[in-house]
Specification:
The protein has about 260 residues and is α+β, with helices and mostly antiparallel strands. The chain has a seven-stranded antiparallel beta sheet with strand order 4-3-2-1-7-6-5, with helices on one face. It has a seven-stranded antiparallel beta sheet with strand order 11-10-9-8-14-13-12, with helices on one face. The protein is elongated.
Length: about 260
């Protein structure tokens, strides 16, 4: 099985990741739970991490720590003068294998977790030259294993969709803007660029929100995308544009599925 299984991208705005239904995730998750791959103690190693400011890939020493249930990363492996750069709470993080055609590195993980009032994204890829795919799958399993032991494994597979969408400013006034969007954990996060550390904004979903395909654009909305769907919340109505009817339908179904989970 390859992490780089081709995904149809004939439509430039088509959804590129289905973490629950994509064959890659089904196989990984079934294998993971069937074999009960539980890792005890500590896992550590060097991975390449995408820099938040300069955007270059830097070597960082990562450590899964069972004692405080975190994924920590440091500036170097040696404990002498080692500096802690960040920590991810495993009880509330989401991990996703990325698509090489979207991210500029193969064998890469997207780790998404709450930091303060925002969701923080970090991207890490294999540092191994000989077996990079094996290395990144082992890290994927290790994170899932720790979450299993904490009782959060299945709850953390909640990245439903990711793709580029077109979005208008408030109430549709202004030009359409391309945003990278993630449907995760009961919200839509939208970013200026795909690998930004923090979203430009977010839409928290509720069971009362209404999502539907828009057949005719209101007069105040500028023409642009071929297909548009709206998300009406208590605060405002959001207009989202896509390039195909299929993509439009998939996003609406995805949002509906998240709302159904909110009812449970």
């Amino acid at each position: 099985m390859s992490l780089n299984t081709p995904i149809d991208d004939s439509d430039s705005l088509k959804i590129r990741s289905l973490s629950v239904t994509d064959d890659r995730y089904i196989k990984l998750e079934e294998l993971f739970f069937r074999k009960s791959l539980l890792i005890k103690g500590v896992k550590s190693g060097t991975l390449l991490k995408k820099g938040k400011e300069r955007g270059c890939w830097l070597q960082r020493h990562f450590m899964l720590e069972r004692l405080n249930n975190t994924l920590s990363y440091y500036d170097k492996a040696s404990t002498a003068g080692q500096k802690l750069l960040g920590q991810v709470d495993l009880r509330s993080c989401y991990v996703l294998l990325t698509d090489e055609k979207i991210v500029d590195k193969p064998n890469c993980l997207h780790i998404l977790y709450p930091r303060g009032k925002q969701m923080r994204s970090i991207y890490v890829c294999a540092n191994s030259v000989r077996e990079p795919m094996k290395e990144i799958i082992e890290w994927y399993y290790a994170i899932r294993s720790f979450q299993t032991q904490l009782g959060y494994a299945r709850n953390c597979v909640q990245i439903v969709y990711e793709s580029y969408l077109l979005k208008t400013p408030a109430e549709g006034k202004g030009a359409w803007r391309r945003r990278w969007c993630i449907l995760v954990a009961g919200r839509i996060l939208y970013y200026k660029s795909i690998m930004d550390a923090f979203p430009k904004g977010e839409v928290k979903l509720s069971k009362e929100d209404k999502c539907e395909k828009l057949h005719n654009l209101p007069k105040h909305i500028k023409s642009g995308p071929d297909y548009v769907f709206t998300l009406s919340t208590k605060r405002r109505t959001y207009y989202w544009g896509v390039a195909s009817e299929e993509t439009c339908t998939q996003w609406i179904k995805g949002i509906d599925s998240v709302q159904a989970d909110l009812l449970q």
